[in-house]
Every structure is written in C-alpha cells, then in structure tokens.
Specification:
5 helices; 7-stranded mixed beta sheet; alpha/beta
C-alpha cells in the first residue's frame, strides 16, 4: 500500500512539474518517463569507496536488499570527494554515497534511515553521516557485538544535529 501511495505521489509531482514547465517554457512532457523510473531515481546512489574496503561492499549489499540501486565507484580520491561534497573531517567514515538529487550519506547509515531522509529531507541539510565505523551498524556486523551510535544530520553551514540514535538492545 505504501508503495502505491509513493508511486501515486511521484506521478502527481511529475505531472505537476511537467504541466508547469510546459506552461512557462512551452516544453512538452516526455511520454516515455514513468513514475517507476522516478522512484528508482530517488533510490539510486553512487557509492565512492576504497577498492580494498570490504565493509563498504557489505553496506552496499545492505542498501540494495532494502530496495536501493547502488553503483560502486572505487577511487583513490575519496578524501577529495568527501571535501567537495561538504563532509567535514569529524563526520567522515569509509565510504560516501551521493543520491541523484545531491544528498550525501556518509558511512554505515541504516537503509531505512536513508529512505526516511529522502522521503522528507530537512531544510538546509546536505545529508546524513555515521562517523567512524560503529560495530553492529550495517556492513560492520560482528556477531552480537553492537555499539550505540548517532546518525547525524549534516547541514549546509557545516554543523550537525542528531537525526536518529541507534541504541543496542539491552
């Protein structure tokens, strides 16, 4: 049911965007674009990582199992990509994902939280981060060992707030 509501919403947004575009700029909407492709675009991520990092691939597997389409890019320019994307050193982890609409997702963020963010991105946000590599986070599973950790909301001005707290079960 949620998928159908999301699909309907995306179709309405696309229809409105194309109607406004054709009114203002005499642009005809494409009949080949479907609502399904817009949903897929929203869940597409480019993931930049080191070619030697195994936990990054485990995180990619996690998000793909949750409905995302991830394209991995092994790079030796990872620090430059993070800097260019506005991710300050205190927020960095081992991989950086970038959505089609330019939001950044740094580190081992649970897929459900990435989806929640993309469904309703906060104003003045550039994305989310899980600094470091907390045990038990997606891609960092180690049996029953789990760390408590925060998912941070990264803001345009370089500051952050706690977006979500992940607390290990007691």
């Amino acid at each position: 049911m949620k998928f159908l509501l999301t699909l309907s919403f995306c179709a309405l947004v696309l229809y409105t965007a194309f109607a406004n575009a054709s009114d203002k700029h005499d642009i005809q909407p494409s009949l080949t674009m479907s609502a399904n492709s817009s949903v897929a675009d929203a869940l597409s991520l480019k993931v930049f990582k080191s070619p030697t990092c195994g936990c990054c691939q485990k995180w990619i597997d996690h998000i793909e199992l949750s409905g995302f389409k991830a394209t991995a890019h092994d790079t030796d320019r990872l620090n430059q990509i993070k800097t260019d994307s506005g991710i300050l050193p205190q927020y960095q982890s081992c991989h950086t994902a970038i959505s089609k609409n330019g939001f950044v997702f740094e580190g081992h963020i649970p897929a459900a939280i990435v989806k929640q963010f993309l469904d309703n991105p906060p104003k003045d946000a550039i994305g989310l981060a899980v600094p470091g590599m907390p045990m038990g986070s997606p891609g960092m599973e180690m049996g029953n060992m789990r760390d408590d950790y925060n998912v941070l909301l990264l803001k345009n001005d370089g500051s952050s707030d706690i977006y979500e707290q992940i607390i290990k079960p007691r």
